[in-house]
Amino acid sequence: MMNGPQSQSRLRILVMDDDQAIRRIFQIMLERLGCACETAPDGQAAIRQYGEALQRGAPFHAVILDLTVKQGLDGIETLAQLRTLDPGVRAILTTGQTAGDMANAAPPPGFLAVLAKPFKTADLEYALHVALAGACSGDDSARSSST
């Protein structure tokens, strides 16, 4: 998973999902892929954590946002807010909707990949690869120069 300029430091991924069990699954899978993972239970927490990471000079390489949450901002609304902090945020949308509904469609504007639940580690790895392709090829010097 860790190739190119990102290989000198762990990829930092922020996951927003209102289901604690799903957040834990993401954390386990991302750590197995060699990534550092932080989680947020809702959009407001994700926005706060993302902003704090930017201020510390340790931005997230990508975010994974759940399409629907029971309370607060959904993934699309959260991404809109994150874009005000960082127009170059690299986002993956995750959804529990049936595969035919969204997973096979093009990602909504602003998202680089869609990850349908349930998913396998290989699916997560592929979505990260797609979302980070520009960063790993040098398009995103701010995220790759923090090594």
CATH hierarchy, class: Alpha Beta
Q: Distance between termini? A: 17 Å
Instruction: Find the CATH topology.
Output: Rossmann fold
What about the largest sheet? Answer: 5 strands, parallel
Provide the structure class.
alpha/beta
If you average the pLDDT, what whole number results?
84
Spatial order of the strands in the main sheet? 2-1-3-4-5
Provide key terms for this protein.
single chain, 147 residues, alpha/beta, Rossmann fold, 5-stranded parallel beta sheet, 5 strands, 43% helix, 18% strand, disordered N terminus, disordered C terminus
How does this structure look, described?
The chain is α/β, with parallel strands linked by helices. It has one domain (10-136): Rossmann fold (3-Layer(aba) Sandwich), CATH 3.40.50.2300. It has six helices and five strands; from the N terminus they run βαβαβαβαβαα. The protein has helices at residues 20-32, 43-56, 75-85, 99-103, 121-136, 141-144; strands at 12-16, 36-40, 62-66, 91-95, 111-116. A five-stranded parallel sheet has the order 2-1-3-4-5, with helices on both faces. α4 (99-103) links the parallel β4 (91-95) and β5. α2 packs parallel to α3 (75-85). The chain is globular, with a radius of gyration of 14 Å.
Topology overview:
Elements: E1 12-16, H1 20-32, E2 36-40, H2 43-56, E3 62-66, H3 75-85, E4 91-95, H4 99-103, E5 111-116, H5 121-136, H6 141-144
Parallel strand pairs: 1-2, 1-3, 3-4, 4-5
